Sugar ABC transporter permease
Amino acid sequence: MAQQGTPIQRIITHVLLLIALVISIFPFYWMIVMATNTTSDIYRVPPQVIFGGNLLVNIGNVLKNIDFMKNFFNTLFVAVVVTVLVLFFCSLAGFTFAKFEFPWKKGLFTFLLGTMILPSSGSLVASFVIMANLNWIGTFLPLIVPSMVTAFGIFWMRQYAMNAIHNELIDAARIDGCGHFRLYWNIALPALRPALGFLGILTFITAWNDYLWPLIVLNDSNLYTLQVALSTLNGLYSTDYSMVMAGTLMATIPLIIIFFVGARQFIANLSAGAVKF
């Protein structure tokens, strides 16, 4: 068995990994510290760096100032619907680009890649005008319909499908009478599960954390997503940062759960796919 480096090299590697872990975890730790203390504790010099006992009070203040559960389910609905639609349409398009020939295939894919370099903020005005002309402002449709397909999602699924799905398997399925959609449903989807897991996690987190676009198109407080609702906790002249951090912590916990559950499934499927293919 090949040596994995000298003991000193392994120690240095583990130290660097530990430092990177501490740097990555510290923002979450600091958020919890701020959420469990008072705003005056946050402004102390030196600052409070240990957990306090004010978490329940801060959570109570959040629940008094915003309709957290309604905003939570609004965000959950949008994130789940967007994730399901992205997984379906992007995997279908990616599979088509990877394994089928059709006119203007390379040109369309090049154009698709070109859209990835355009900043999303540059299209906000045009997107708002389109949504307004469709009378969709003040509904969830502007959050769902434009997000049903993403250029990165198609690119990611296409790259994965090129190596994960063998042409011989597709030819055999065609001989058995499989049409395009059945090839996708019965052949492609089982092979694409690891890629779907990654794309699903990324899409859900992105939809959950979206702030600017929902702020523009949602003009009814009953439809506010969590990010928009939490922004209303900021006062005009003063802000209770401990309350804001408590609300942020409450909004972050579902993402942490989704990440760990989804990442575990993603790694398991990736390992299974490596053995299978």
